[in-house]
Amino acid sequence: MDEPENEWDTDLEDAENRKSKHDLVKSEQYILDCARRGAVPCSLFIKNLDGEHLNLNHYGLGVKGVQALACLLKTHTKLLKLELEDNNITIEGVKYISDMLIENCFIQHLNLAHNQLQTAGAKAICDMLRENNTLETVNFSGNYFKDKDAKFFADAFAVNSTVRVLDLSHNEFSLEGGEHLGRLLVKNQTLEVLNLCWNHLRLKGAVAVCGGLQVNNSVRKLDLSWNGFGDEGAFALTEVLKCNKQLEFLDLTNNRISCRGAKMLATGLAMNSTLQFLKLSRNPLTLDGTMALLLAVKDNQSSTLEELDVSNVLVNEAFLQLLEETRKYHPKLLLHYAGMGGWVSKKPKEKTDPMKAIQDYLVERKLRLWDFFRNIDKAGTQTVSIQEFRGALQNLHIPLQKNALEELIQRLDVDRNGNIDYSELLQGQKDFLRKSRHVENQRQKVSSSEEKMLSELSLRVKNMIPADLRHDSLHSSKR
């Protein structure tokens, strides 16, 4: 007897029917739950009950809608990515999501951005993060988190070891918040991507974040754009660039970093071998600061920098020549700048005193001025004509341009009698040495002032680092 031709098809149909019935039961359960809570069922969810990705961003679910959704998702085993951005979830609704994620061990990616979660919401999701061990990517951007809320995240991520990507952008972390985030970076060694853009990180808050980065061995991509790091933060980041061996991407767009800050960052770049992307657009770097950054990359054979964004800076021919030279050593380097027209703020080159040429001649040959003049004064009268003096300097190959030589002669012939006396030359030497000492003293004062300013900045930055982070950073540097 022949077997029915559709026997195997029947088994497949049965499996499909069982699946359909199972989906129907779940959808009916969800619809009934929505009705009981007074929520409008989400048709998109019903259509994708067994999907791996559920995108309900901007769907207007509200607290009741989220409650019904969370109830069904507790036992959902196929959903991997859940997006609920901008759904007015608020403090009450996020508690249902948090409870669900404690029980659900399948969801790996979560987006709760812009849901007005605030302090109570921060606590709820951080309590969940302490217990959940499957989430890998979390987005809590734009939820009105305050400074004190950062402590919840620091405590949670001291325990959580599965989240790789954390987005806390568009919140209100500042001084105290930065300190807690610094501790987060010290305690957690599994985060790879951290987004802190559009907060209020500045002064000790910014410095504390850098203190944490000095000892962190996991973060590869860090977005600090649109904060207020300033030169203090740049100084602290310099130390990060010197010792951190993991960071590959750093965004410092719009952080009030000046030319001085850029030059400090350059000292860090000169010793860094891992950073590949550095964004510094919308900072008052000036061309001076940008030149310092590029020169640091050029001179660092170990540099792996591939992209430098200074797209608000106007450059000049000298900069482009330096860029061309740098690319000989780093051919992959891509640099974004605003265009041509930049200028470097330099003081006019100081005019060299022509008497210096004679003084250098004396020092080089270990001669006294009297010995020098006696070789010119063949008659021994302690006076020579201008023509004799000019000819003698030319014969001795003292390096003086014609204009400089004539200027020196005019200065030495004080009585304008057409002769240069030894006394006039001696007085000229005394005037030159006195002026040289004054210039050197001024230079040392400026140098001392700059060193003092840098030392004060360094001390101020160190004092901004919380005591526990300061200890950890010191321990790391010794290692």
UniProtKB/TrEMBL annotation:
The keyword Calcium applies. Residues 1-14 have a biased composition (Acidic residues). The keyword Glycoprotein does not apply. It comes from the Eukaryota. Keywords: Calcium, Metal-binding. InterPro entries: EF-hand-dom_pair, EF_Hand_1_Ca_BS, EF_hand_dom, Leu-rich_rpt, LRR-containing, LRR_dom_sf. Pfam families: EF-hand_7 (PF13499), LRR_6 (PF13516). Residues 364-399, 400-435 form the EF-hand domain. One of its GO terms (molecular function) is calcium ion binding. Residues 1-20 are annotated as: Disordered. SUPFAM superfamilies: EF-hand (SSF47473), RNI-like (SSF52047). This is Leucine-rich repeat-containing protein 74A. It comes from Acipenser oxyrinchus oxyrinchus.
